[in-house]
Amino acid sequence: MDRAQLPLNALRAFEAAARHLNFTRAAIELCVSQGAVSHQVAQLERRLGTRLFHRLPRGLALTDEGRVLVPVLAEMFDRVASTLDQYGEGRFREPLKVGVVGTFAAGWLLPRLDNFARANPSIDLRISTNNNRVDLTAEALDFAIRFGDGAWHGTHAEPLLAAPMTPVCTPAIAALLQSPVDLVRERLLRSYRADEWALWFDAAGVPTPILRGPIFDSSALMASAAAAGLGVALVPTAMFSRELASELLVQPFAIEIDVGRYWLTRLKSRPETAAMRHFRNWLTEEIENAFFQASP
Description:
- This protein is an alpha/beta fold.
- The protein has helices spanning 8-20, 23-30, 34-48, 64-85, 102-109, 113-119, 171-174, 196-204, 219-227, 241-245, 274-294; strands at 53-56, 59-62, 87-88, 91-92, 94-101, 123-130, 143-148, 155-162, 165-168, 188-191, 215-216, 232-236, 261-267.
- The chain has three domains: 3-85, Arc Repressor Mutant, subunit A (Orthogonal Bundle); 91-163 and 261-294, D-Maltodextrin-Binding Protein, domain 2 (3-Layer(aba) Sandwich); 165-245, Periplasmic binding protein-like II (D-Maltodextrin-Binding Protein, domain 2), CATH 3.40.190.10.
- A hairpin with a 2-residue loop joins strand 1 and strand 2 (59-62).
């Protein structure tokens, strides 16, 4: 069928009638008469040479042929609507979907997003957060910012930021800690990565105590618990510079462990778009500038 001759009005009438299974309700949605919808659907059926609806005394029922056509049209109209939504203020805005581990989102990215928006007004940035478990394909993400070793199957990973971990707590708790061994009597807040405290105590030369503290799936949430005085958290301090600067949290010991870093990842099969390139360049430049400013 020639694209120029596609019966778009008839297809729209059929799709609306298929959702409502009623010509009258479809007509109300489309702001036309019930007769117009019925006529458009009948015209489409004649063009296709098949019936799309069973006309019943009370409403409609889709035929097998109609059921095949409905999801195709629904997807088509949704894609058209999504594309039209990208136009605003007289220009096209390219969507960019980025999944971000929650700690990096709160501790690093969000305070800087206004800079990105001002520098890239043509990009419609869409952020979703996660607890480091993400499916780039299922979630249709352009990028995912994750914490780990950079080894994710089928994924291109670019290192962003080192994130050494060290204990943090309130000033009141820190005043009770003279040496790492004193942590043995404190409540130690834990992440789902079970080996972190053991690695830190090993670096401190102290036997690992039995760990009984609560387990969190986010360093950001764990740091909030520590700030509330619920215990001592082992976190990447680079993500909590504001809390440390305000002394909401303090770092009682200088001992750090390196168990991973933050990475910008994308599917190897995903070609890099202009929006992806702008975001990657902006992100790496922001990190380089912050590191340079923090260096003595």
